[in-house]
Amino acid sequence: MRPTPLPKKTKATKRALLVVNPKARRGGETIAPALDVLKASGIEVVDMTAGKDQPIDELIRKQATGCDLVIVGGGDGTLNAAAPALVDLKLPLGVLPLGTANDFARTVGIPPDPVKAAEVIAQGLLTPIDLGEVNGHLFFNVASIGFSAELAADLSDKAKKRWGKLGYGIVAARLLARSRLFSAHLDHDGTTEKIRTLQISVGNGKHYGGGMTVEETATADDGRLDFYSLEVDHWWRLLALLPSLRRGTQGRWDDVRAFQTTEVTVRTSRPRPVNTDGELCTTTPAHFRIRPKALSVFVPKRK
């Protein structure tokens, strides 16, 4: 008498809400091959496209019922918009980098190719990451006041789609000639400092601005904010600083104030816009703090 064969084990299916931002630089490209990778790994994808009038976090809150994870297709601004819902719902995040700079993806090692990024999600390795917060607004990479905020205001979606990362340089060169220092007060770690600065940056992650690095040792899970202030006398001094700004070693320069903290407040004589992950979201006075291990993200396996 033959033994009854055991039933074959089937791969457990997970349900993922996929939200793609069509305004992202590569948001209109087909991601069908990436979806095939997810399907083959046992992930059922509920595909939603963000509309013009519906905020991304609102879309996630309405459509994520019964989902095990959320996959966001877009750039850093799209991730920024999704963050409140992801944190509140405690759903893990998969990233398909479809934006211009994709600085967060670069920080955690997610490949720029959507198919390779889908393979990362399929592998299922999750890690908790920190988020920064300023006046109640969350950010993945860097929040800034001054030059970078002016850059974010002037860099249109059209310029990003046409020029990509080069668009940052084109607009930055135009702004640089008319940028001026401004005064600010910093409250942190029991001290108050008055400064004159061209730009203040407060980083949670490592990369920002399509090629800049907030601090060479920064990670998205180190439990700290990396602060720096560019206190340069002349705009041409910023050009000399550029290689260090790309490497994240600007804190070694005499005219750059840099420190690590978990909380800092920036006060200015008049309200100044604050740029978070490329989007203007609030103004000074700006209270920054770290949100440790606020979100879980699918990341590549370490080699």
TrEMBL record:
The source's superkingdom equals Bacteria
Matching entries from Gene3D superfamilies are given as:
2.60.200.40, Probable inorganic polyphosphate/atp-NAD kinase, domain 1
Q: Which SUPFAM superfamilies match?
A: NAD kinase/diacylglycerol kinase-like (SSF111331)
PROSITE patterns registered for this protein in UniProt: DAGK
Q: Where is the DAGKc domain?
A: 11-138
Q: Name one GO molecular function term.
A: ATP binding
| Key words, A-Z | ATP-binding, Kinase, Nucleotide-binding, Transferase
Q: Which SMART domains match?
A: DAGKc (SM00046)
GO terms in the biological process aspect are: phospholipid biosynthetic process
- Listed Pfam families: DAGK_cat, YegS_C
Instruction: Note the PANTHER family from the entry.
Output: SPHINGOSINE KINASE, SPHINGOSINE KINASE RELATED PROTEIN
> NCBIfam families from the xrefs?
PRK13057.1 (NF009604), YegS/Rv2252/BmrU family lipid kinase (TIGR00147)
Q: What is this protein called?
A: Lipid kinase
Organism of provenance: Mesorhizobium zhangyense
